[in-house]
Amino acid sequence: MRTLSKLKLMVVATILTFGMSSCLKTENSFVIYPALAYVLQNANDEYQLQIQIYGNEPIASANATFDSKTYSFSAVSGSQNYYMRLNPSYALPLDSIAGGICQITASNAEGETAVSQIEFRSTEKVIGEVTLTELSYDGDANSVTATWEKVENAEQYYLLFRERSSSYLEENMWIPYSEVRYSDKDGNLTTTLSIPLTKDVNYEIAIGATNGTTLRVSDRILRVVGGTDTSIN
Question: What are phi and psi of 226, to 5 degrees?
């Protein structure tokens, strides 16, 4: 899996992170940054923390403390430990998540520590189902066209993508590539956006609705190969 593809680096560099984040200064040269952070709402209206961090040096270990709970991180495959992700096996879905500060502490091979903080909002408003009526990918134009029904309690919409995981046990995090500017189409919302997918790489594409720091993914997702036309219709 090409975790550090040019596309992903571009997204990380723009820090499309729903959580409000900050890095705490230390005397060490080792620092960490939140690359992605959001609360994922599933189809059962349960909530799961999703966090990925990046270090300016390989990260030996990391953990997060939030709402009196401690969560461990594991290395992102193919990243040489520059990227670590909150371990989904330990961050189990919850009925609700209170707002507050999540503190992340990481260490490098020399034992230096770095700290970063992310602020999550509470999950007071349940995001309605994101129902797609159209989702297609034009391989020649490298663009996505989507049409979906208006979503209850959605503040914003995003075009989401991720490289398809090679593991059946763990899926990659959704990456919010771009906030969607949409128009009306017969009472539904529609958009066409360019997305520079790498040719012959396997991806998944979806539309996401957000409220605060919470993300809900569309009911259907599109599996594509970069450069090849695909549609769910």
Answer: -50, 125
Q: Where in the chain is the domain with CATH 2.60.40.10?
A: 132-231
Place of tokens 């134009």: 141
- Mean pLDDT, the chain, whole residue set: 86
As a whole number, mean pLDDT of residues 201-217 equals 95
Q: Euclidean distance between the first and final Cα of the chain, in Å?
A: 28
Neighbouring CB atoms inside 10 A of 34's CB total 22
pLDDT digits over 7-36, tens only?
A: 333 333 233 344 455 555 556 699 999 999
Residue 31 structure tokens: 């620092």
**What's the confidence (pLDDT) of residue 24?**
56
CATH of domain 6-120: 2.60.40
Give the CATH superfamily of 132-231: Immunoglobulins (2.60.40.10)
Q: Which residues contact 32 (CB under 8 A, 6 or more apart)?
A: 23, 53, 54, 55, 56, 59, 62, 104, 106, 114, 115, 116
pTM across the whole model: 0.86
